[in-house]
Specification:
The structure holds two protein chains of two kinds. Chain A is mostly beta strands. Chain A is about 0% helix and about 50% strand. In chain A, the strands form two sheets. In chain A, strands 2, 4, 5, 6, 9, 10 and 11 form a seven-stranded mixed beta sheet that branches. In chain A, strands 1-3-8-7 form a four-stranded antiparallel beta sheet, with no helix packed on it. The N and C termini of chain A lie far apart (about 35 Å). Chain B contains no helices and ten strands. In chain B, the strands form two sheets. Chain B has a six-stranded mixed beta sheet, with no helix packed on it. A four-stranded antiparallel beta sheet of chain B has the order 1-3-8-7, with no helix packed on it. Chain B is globular, with a radius of gyration of 13 Å. Chains A and B meet through strand 5 and strand 10 of A and strand 5 of B.
Chain lengths: ~110, ~120
Amino acid sequence: EIVLTQSPGTLSLSPGERASLSCRASQRVSSSYLAWYQQKPGQPPRLLIYGASDRATGIPDRFSGSGSGTDFTLAINRLEPEDFGVYYCQQYGSSPITFGQGTRLEIK
Amino acid sequence: EVQMLESGGGLVQPGGSIRLSCAASGFTFIDYAMSWVRQAPGKGPEWVSGISGSGDTTYYADSVLGRFTISRDNSNNTLHLQMNALRDEDTAVYYCVQDRAAIDPWGQGTLVAVSS
């Protein structure tokens, strides 16, 4: 199975700053089938990005995804206070689907 | 609009059993392989089990192989997970999802708590 490793484990930034979250795969992710999710306490994850770089419906253009092969990045420009939470990457190109362990984004 | 409504969770003792159900709507159910994904407290999501659209083929994570059984009822657009010989480490919120897809939206999940 493909193992996804996210870094950093925790990111602490101020509103207005830019966040860069990394997701590295142990094998090539087929057809860039890589998604990013945001999760807040007590809620299920919410899809932000699919296909490595396509924003899901209703997601602000402050969120952008990039990468291919084994290295992927989620960038969040001009951080807003509501962007706090835990971010997960997921690959869905190979069975079984797998998830990263998460990056916690703290707002200063 | 795709919707998943999970149910059946609860508090169960170690070694006990429980059956989860998921009512799916908003898509042609039989056309999609489905999976159960769980999320333990403070942890990332973890794939548990999957089933083909026809129900002929099933897949399990090593951690649940031999204890859990996935099934589906295509006439009622329902997915099930029979969970036996439950362990403390099975405590999690369980979600049903379309397999091999970006998950959107997630259902609210159903909580299984294994504790004496």
